[in-house]
Specification:
With about 90 residues, this protein is an alpha+beta fold. About 30% of the residues lie in helices and about 20% in strands. The protein has helices spanning about 10-20, 30-35, 40-50; strands spanning about 55-60, 65-70.
Amino acid sequence: MFNQFEVSDKTQAETIKAHLEAGNTITTFEAFQHWGYVCLPQHIRALRVKGYVIESKSVIHNGKRFNVYWWGDQDYAPTASAPATRQEDE
């Protein structure tokens, strides 16, 4: 079976941690799109248990409720009207 996702030596939790540390936000859908990860909340919990501060907020967008996660020391909290990802307009 062909795997469309890149294989990495990093664990899934390490990949997520690096993504958040870089100033990005992440949702479960984005984790699946980017890396094929289907259990983002479990990885977030594991990182929190290790002492990392990861903030989250429940957001409703297009009638769907989901959590957005970001690194705890960043001054960013998404709102229902703001995009779920933190990307500059091109």
